[in-house]
Amino acid sequence: MANKEPTGDGESYFVRRLMDETGITEEQARVLIALLGYEWTSLLREANILAQKRQP
Q1: Are 47 and 27 a contacting pair, CB within 8 Å?
Q2: What value does the mean pLDDT take over residues 32-56?
Q3: How far is CA 36 from CA 41, 55, 56, in A?
Q4: Would you give the DSSP letter of residue 53?
Q5: Are 33 and 4 in contact, with CB atoms under 8 Å apart?
Q6: Rounded to whole angstroms, how far apart are CA atoms 37 and 9?
Q7: In a designed cystine with 4, which of 35, 37, 48, 49 is the match (CB 3.0 to 4.6 A)?
Q8: What is the pLDDT of residue 9?
Q9: Strand stretches in 1-56, DSSP E
Q10: C-alpha angle 6-11-12 in degrees, rounded to nearest 5
Q11: Measured on CA atoms in the order 21, 26, 32, 38, is the torsion positive or negative?
């Protein structure tokens, strides 16, 4: 079960951190959080997959 704790500023922190560490867009980060909650290892894994797909 996904951990859905932070809201508001906490969510912004996770969005920004995902964007900074993986290069995904804000929209992609928000979608991942909506799907996975705040389980950092899962978010990072999926964000890295998305980032790899964006590279030519």
Answers
A1: no
A2: 92
A3: 10, 23, 26
A4: H
A5: no
A6: 15
A7: 37
A8: 74
A9: none
A10: 145
A11: positive
Mean predicted lDDT score pLDDT of the chain: 87
**Other C-beta atoms within 10 Å of 6: how many?**
14
Residue with tokens 């909650």: 37
Q: Using a cut of 0.70, tell me whether the model's pTM lies above it.
A: yes
Alpha helix (H) ranges present in 1-56?
Answer: 9-22, 26-36, 40-54
Among 18, 21, 24, 16, which Cα is nearest to 51's?
Answer: 24
Q: Are 4 and 38 contacting, i.e. CB atoms less than 8 angstroms apart? A: yes
Residue 33 CA to residue 18 CA, distance in Å, equals 10
